[in-house]
Amino acid sequence: MHSHDPGAPAHAQFPAPSYVSGTSEQPLLPELATPGMWRWDELHALAEAVPAARLAALQAELQFDDPINIQYTSGTTGAPKGVTLTHHNILNNGYFVGAGMNLQPAQRVVIPVPLYHCFGMVMGNLACLTHRATMIYPNAAFDPAATLRAVEAERADALYGVPTMFIAELEHPEFANFDLSSLRTGIMAGSNCPVEVMKRVIERMHMEAVTIAYGMTETSPVSLQTRPDAPLEKRVATVGTIHPHLEVKIIDPASGQVLPRGTSGELCTRGYSVMQGYWDNDAATRQAIDTHGWMHSGDLAMMDDDGYVAITGRIKDMIIRGGENLYPREIEEFLYTHPAISDAQVFGVPDARYGEAVAVWIRLVEGAELDAEGVRAYCRERIAHHKIPRYVKFVDDFPMTVSGKVQKFRMRQAMSDELAP
């Protein structure tokens, strides 16, 4: 199948404010002197010392496809790599992300995701800058209460976040006391967006036009996005359709052949958004980008007849149990329907008989009670027997990157160590 569209926590020496906003009357973070960094007033003063002729000369030397940013991958599957991105990559992608959510001038966007990550830098800052929207930063580090306060105080139109952030906001003890009626849209991205969480965001946070964006740092980052006017099922169960001026295809990972629609395979992207390469790592670049310019995502996806793409898992996360290919995402989506389960992460662990066995780490809703047998009983007669988790562990938190993405490889290693004889 092929589709183408032409068209850190606050420093201890001062208290973190309730929220940080460029439009609020409350003060911004105190102007501290930090080694190796400029304060805002110092930065402005430096600008006064640069003649206009010098700026014009520098501008004439720069090209749109010169690198502007080395963005490190999040490390969800191992060591991060430096992704080299250009002006052309990120400025255009930010614009199309904003257009995808129908962002309008003077609308307010609350951005609690890290600004050193593509979600905050491109989808947040550059989407707002290219659409003349207002950027609101709730806190020095993610805090669900600060985020909800910022939405209420600023009468925000849009809210960003990874799924775990939205879950934390929805489950905050004071959630019902916040007025979120101004919200219309926003973006959920960064990792798999559970259908049940999307439905709760739409129903309880007034985000009827919330969109899911899919991509990777190597593609600046967004390749696919749901449309606010798409049918509800498409908006909550897929990652949408292809962005303008990009191509995607879904291939057999073994042969490289393009697969028919409705068949799961590896998603690849080609176009303006593809990185220049991994910084100082030509071998990794050649492994990721093929000779025809396609960026291989490592994600398993399926495209329907309408061009909507659903992410079914990651190739590295796929569980092979007794010759059967099991997709953790499918099992996770089912577990989210249990009223006591707040979050679930499914992965494979070594098994002497079947090669791999299904394991799951579960976070419960506050105050809820559930045991491993209760989880298995809920699964019986609802999903296939070989998909029922053999190992169930209840945890308070998952190992995560600083940008809020779950690190399944660390869970797999920890669980394997626990089960080792």
From TrEMBL:
InterPro entries: AMP-bd_C (IPR025110), AMP-bd_C_sf (IPR045851), AMP-binding_CS (IPR020845), AMP-dep_synth/lig_dom (IPR000873). Residues 1-22 are annotated as: Disordered. The keyword Ligase applies. Keywords: Ligase. Residues 58-279 form the AMP-dependent synthetase/ligase domain. The keyword Ligase applies. Pfam families: AMP-binding, AMP-binding_C. CDD domains: FACL_like_2. Residues 330-405 form the AMP-binding enzyme C-terminal domain. Belongs to the ATP-dependent AMP-binding enzyme family. This is AMP-binding protein. It comes from Salinicola acroporae. The lineage of its organism: Bacteria, Pseudomonadati, Pseudomonadota, Gammaproteobacteria, Oceanospirillales.
